[in-house]
Amino acid sequence: MKKETIFLALFLVVLGLSNTNAQINLGEKALGAVQKGVAGLTFTNEQAAQLSKEAVVKMDAEHVIAGATNPYAIRLKKIFGKHANTNGLNLNYKVYVLKEVNAFATADGSVRVYSGLMDVMDDNELLVVIGHEIGHVVNKDSRDAIKAAYQKEALIDGVASQSGKIAAITDSQLGKIGSAMIDSKHSRKQESEADIFAYDFMKKNGYNVNAVESAFSILAKMSEGAQMDFLTKMMSSHPDSKERAENAKARAQKEGLYKPYIRKMPVAAKPKTTTKKKTTTKK
User: Fold this and answer.
1) What three-state secondary structure class fits 94?
2) Are 244 and 216 in contact (CB under 8 A)?
3) What DSSP assignment string belongs to 170-184?
4) How does DSSP classify residue 237?
5) DSSP state of 270
6) What is the mean pLDDT of each run of 10 residues along the chain (283 residues)?
7) CA-to-CA distance for 94 and 232, rounded, in angstroms?
């Protein structure tokens, strides 16, 4: 309510200045910025999807994407292609060739998986993480995250537009919104609900639900070992990974589905190593 009052007040001020030819004239650019801020308060699902799509297009152009014949892309299509239509969402998916352990999904249905994540998880574990990210989209967490990012940029624009520099979302601001989508700080409640969605996704589609515990256990071990600064940053706002693994195990036990999970890492997903060939000299 407080934010709405502020935006409305700004809107009325601009209208008043325009109508009275006041000496301090913010102009059409400032008016557009304030209108953007007001519009952000009633951000629709369609608006969230459109802005997400634009941000993802920019991010795709700035990353190395695994081509159709790349082993990572082939693997992702094999295990996830059948789920391109989930809970009424039309999902498009790609692999970012990066060593970071990460994945994200956006309000427009874009799913991006980092090759680093595929290197450390088997197919079922990977589906758990992707299912978790889709859960954020289904639960509208992704929509709320991009709405918050958009409102922040609208406020920045409102200040900057007084000097006539910014009139709309710029390419730079679009990049910031994209980064905000990747680094979204969801609440513990939202994260827990996304975990539940991931478990339900695995169960509904006939996958081994014990992979949920395994996936979170992997993240817990990596976080403890501080193997990746990026991973530590990514998990900082999430519930404790050990706790999440234990919750998944407890639910599987309650449902009579628990058994120790046996990981099956595909050969194509293993990090490449090189060995020096031995040479022999014929006598």
Assistant:
1) strand
2) yes
3) -HHHHHHHHHHHHT-
4) T
5) S
6) 43 36 36 43 78 92 96 97 93 96 93 96 97 95 85 58 46 78 80 96 98 95 61 51 94 97 77 44 45
7) 24
Give burial (CB, 10 Å; 0-12/13-18/19+) of 109: buried
Backbone φ and ψ of 176, nearest 5°: -65, -40
Query: For the segment 249-283, what is each residue's pLDDT rounded down to a tens digit?
Result: 999 999 999 999 999 998 654 444 444 444 444 44
Residue 216 near residue 196 (C-beta atoms within 8 A): no
- Read off the amino acid at residue 169: I
Catalytic sites, residue numbers: 133
Cα–Cα dist 79/92, whole Å: 14
Q: What is the pTM of this model?
A: 0.73
Q: Which two tokens stand for residue 193?
A: 């609900």
Interatomic CA distance for residues 251 and 218, integer angstroms: 19
Instruction: Determine the Cα–Cα distance for residues 30 and 126; give it in Å rounded to an integer.
Output: 46
- Phi/psi at 198 (5° precision): -60, -45
